[in-house]
Predict the 3D structure of the following.
Amino acid sequence: MIRCIDVCKTYRQGDNDITALAGLSLEIAKGSFAAIMGPSGSGKSTLMHLIGGLDRPTSGELFVNGRLIGQMADDQVTLFRRYKIGFVFQFFNLLPTLTALENVALPLVLDGRSQAESDERAQALLARTGLDKRRDHLPDELSGGEIQRVAVARALAFSPPILLADEPTGNLDSRTGEAILSLLKEINHEEGCTVVMVTHSQEAARYSDRTIFLRDGRVEKEHC
Amino acid sequence: MLALLRSISWRHVKRHRLRTALTFFGIALGVAVIVAIAVVNRSLTTSFESTIDQIAGKAVLQVANGESGIAESLYPVIRDTPGVRDAAAAVEGFLPVVGVPGERLYIYGVDFLTDFAIREHQFAQAQFGFDQALDFIANPDSIAVTESFARRLGMPLGARLNLLTSEGQRQFTIRALLKEQGTAKVFGGSFALMDLPAAQRVFGKEGKLDIVDLTLEPGEQIGRVQQRVSQRLNGAAEVDRPKKRGEQIELLLTSFRVGLFFVSLIALFVGFFLIYNTVSVSVIQRKREMGTLRCIGMRRSELFRLIVSEALILALVGSILGALLGWLLARAALIAVGETVGNLFSVVDLIVGNFTIAELALALGSGVAVALLAALFPAWQAMRVSPLENARQAAWRPAGDRTVSWANRLGLLCTIMAPIFLLIAPTVGDPVKRFSVGVIGMLIFLLALAAFCPALIRFAVGWFWRSRVRLPGSDAVEPRLAADSLRRNPARSGITVATVVISLAAIFTIAAFVSSVRGSLLTWVDQMVTADLIVSSGARTAGPRNVPLREDLLP
């Protein structure tokens, strides 16, 4: 499902080149739940961005869902993100002016689906994440856990084969965090969706099938 | 796209009502100025054309000789030219009504026996036949005024009317009332008919004619008759079609109209910066939101279209309101313009008329085109927003260096180009083109000022930062935080400062333009009129059409 071969990523910062990934190679199987851990600056988020097509590797090959993502045109990557990748972020990144239902329906509206079809699908997804009664509330009116549930529902709009979660519990209390992790696990099990989660938390990593530790832009070790 | 506009854009607009309202009214005001000036210009042209047409009646040719007039002795020469059927001589001019401030009567002195062949004068009295006409001619104090004028001044048939003539105050008797039809419709009914010799006397034009209107024999070609009359006059007067007179007056008005046009151009320029500012700030504010949209699969082109569409919708609605405001503004402006044109050139009865499709198209076209142009760059910046933007936790910092250097390059280019235009301007032969080139140079200079704003901010803030200036009443922390924010975002701050600079510069430019015209006029008057005291007939009316002073008063 996800295969990285000697992937490097360097950033230019002032006059210096910063290496975020230094020849990283790994494979994540379809339908698995992988947690990526490591100290700050180890390249976790960069790896996540590359897998999600938010950024491009400087060198190396990165296959996601069978596609060589670094060589796709911008529009192709965008559509790839739309249909094949679901994102869940630490800071939720919902549109503050849209209700929960509208936020979940947004990817479908972007795709040109009718309002009725988009709303129907969004309603079903909110029900799936236990938030159907809060559909007309703005993000400001929801708790952190509820907002993250909306974000998970939005990520599932096109039933993507891959769900990327960047510190999904980083901004939540432990109980709410556990509920979100359970939800991710449930999605992984029930829908066969490959989940890749970046986390600092050992507790969160326990929900995964496999934990990959990064250090200095490379895989340091793995636990299954 | 509509769904996105409804959900994303509309909500954003609702959340930033004040800023949206300011931009909206900025566009509306800009368009209103453009529309008002277009309506005023159209009204001026239409009114002059209509006045010329109404006075000319059925005449296909007119013989005139500017302000000097035609010697009356040439009338038979004109009338007897082969191909001329009717020739109606006239003396025309304005006379102030004594005791009614601001009231001026357009006097048309005609030969009652020949003029009816050219112009249709409808009398209110059913029985104004040959006998009444003879009676009218026999009394040199006879005057025929329109019904509306008589009503306005409360003067019935037989009432006495005091006019200020070249012979001083003179009393006339209203012996006929004219229906407001045909020629009598000009100048809002402030029209009067007088017998030709009487009119010549009141204007001090004895032995002179202002105009001779001609109709032709059936089958005659206008060009040939025009040539024949010209040959017979041998340069003593000019023979033209009536429209030519309108064109001459229009030519006089050209610089006035060009001036107005450039005022509207400046309004558009300010509108451009207002829209640019709003869209830019909106893009900067929504960078994270745009990152999210890119992240969940919105293409760059879709984001570009969304931003441009937002600006276009705002501009479209603003332009519609601007068109309505412009029409109202035009109605008010026409009073002032009518007075100015009346004082400078000739009294004209300005017609507002209906709002035309062309004016609506101008309003929508200018508003939308400017909005589109202004939104392109911010929309392009929005298009470049990385999907990673929404993953960044720190506040966005624009690539200040690149933007500043790009703006500097534009500023430098404009600084080089502006003097070229300003230097070329005086060498252009045509005065209107000279003025236009000068204004273009000035607009480019304004653009240069705007482009240098980010660099100026960076320089000023840098100085503030280094010198550790303390603002009175505050410790050093707040101003330094503010300075830091400006320093980090010179482009964003530059847009706001540039908008203020352009708006102020536009105000100063218009004020300087008005002051320059006024100063030039005053200098010209000072140079031309060196006398300490001036004695005139008192019957000052409009521009060159003043009534001359009686010669016998000179000794």
Q: What stands out?
A: The domain at 31-41+73-223 of chain A is CATH 3.40.50.300 (Rossmann fold). The mean pLDDT of chain A is 89. The longest helix of chain A spans residues 174-191. The interface with chain B takes residues 45, 49, 52-55, 74-75, 78-79, 81-83, 87, 89, 91, 93-95, 97-98, 102, 106-107, 109-111, 115, 154, 157, 166 of chain A (CB under 8 Å).
